[in-house]
Amino acid sequence: MNSFTDNDPIREGISYYLISISRGDTLYRTGNEKASAGPYARTASNMEDNRLRSSESTNEAPTDISLTSNQIAENKPSGTFIGEFNTDDPNEDDVHTYSFISGTNNNSSFTIVDDTLYSNEIFDYETKSSYMISVRTTDTAEASYDKDFTITITDVDELGIDITSIDNTHFSILPNPFIYSTVIRSNKEGIIIRKIEIFNAAGIKIKQYNDIDSDQFVLKKDDLEPGTYYIRLTSEDVYYLKFILQ
Question: How far is 192 from 239, CA to CA, in rounded Å?
Fold first, then answer.
């Protein structure tokens, strides 16, 4: 039994495997149909239309990752949508998964769900205005591509107070951020807290504590939602403080 190949004159990259059988040879079919028509009517084939493709599609690794948005405003709650990842891949129909890779980055401040990036904390522009994440895209053949992204925290107008008005010299808030409670304490002897007003990031006053008359005050979470808040503290003067509730 002899065999030879012949290139398809129309479709590039496709060849036919032809098998010629001399008298006395026994032919065993391995496919569902035997050749009965076409240019190779008296040859054997184990694929539809009497053809065997000489090469199968070869997987190629992804070449790039993009992110639809890389910005998030400060004070947004944890779990806020940021953007979606997309992959450039020579294999157009390939499917990709996304994950963080270790390194010098801020991956823990974010989460990836499927192809979507979410925040994993409440960001404060005045504390840190940009974060770096390292992301890997992996295709179905386990080929991958890595890329770093910078996530920018955008500033918002909070209570119309210039950041230089925030005073950490006369009073401290510890811990800050906090989950259940924190202590507002005078840093200088003889300074007494008279009144505390709490404003949300939109500048709306939501709480007020009067007649404190002490050098410290325990602030509890109570019904406050996670986010950034401002305090207007009245003593012998008026001071502005800022805290983050997680």
Answer: 12
